[in-house]
Amino acid sequence: MVAIANFDSAEMLNTLVSLAVAIVLGALIGAERQYRQRTAGLRTTALVALGASAFVDLGMRLMGNQGATQVLAYVASGVGFLGAGVILKEGMNIRGLNTAATIWCSAVMGAFAGADRPVEAVLMAGFVLAGNTFLRPLVHLIERAPIDESATEAVYEVRVATIDARRDAIRDLMIEKLEAAAYPIQDIEENEREDDVEIVATLAATSAKSDELDAIVAAIERLAGVTHATWSSRTSD
Fold first, then answer.
1. Are both 100 and 173 inside the same structural domain?
2. How much is the pTM?
3. Residue 64 pLDDT level (bands cut at 50, 70, 90)
4. Which of 106, 144, 158, 226 is the most buried (most CB within 10 A)?
């Protein structure tokens, strides 16, 4: 009897519109993901949008705007866990971040629909599709652009192998030459090896010129007691 008493045709029609808007727009976003053979395709994205819309709509019907606000917080955190499920780590590569972000945005779009904001839901869906479609050529353009080493922030390491009797003198000379060339040292360590000692100087994250480091390493390699000297770089975190 309570179910019959709670039936309201106007509210039911309002819910129907909200859910319909959410699933249609979610399907449109998911169609682009499905076309590109991503992990979360049409059905997943549509259901995420539909679920977010239903939760927000239910919260509004039970407690008004306050209920919708409370539900939104749980929807955001819940969709975050769902999005984490599509992120995969393959060796040094991470896949699925864009798909996870799309799921998150689809939930926001569904929340707009559930909160009786269909125009905002349409706008959100349009922006998601634009981000996944029209930004793709820009990403490819940036990735193909040659890297300017002087503008790249990286961590550089200078490695010098020396005999044990000269380790202290070589370490001090390394520090002197690097600091004289305006390359501050972040950390320095010594690795004992069978025949010699390797001194590794880690420079602070900065931009550097290859020819300058080549010249410094060449000067260090000419020092008495040094058997080998080189430098390498890696992208800073």
1. no
2. 0.59
3. confident
4. 106
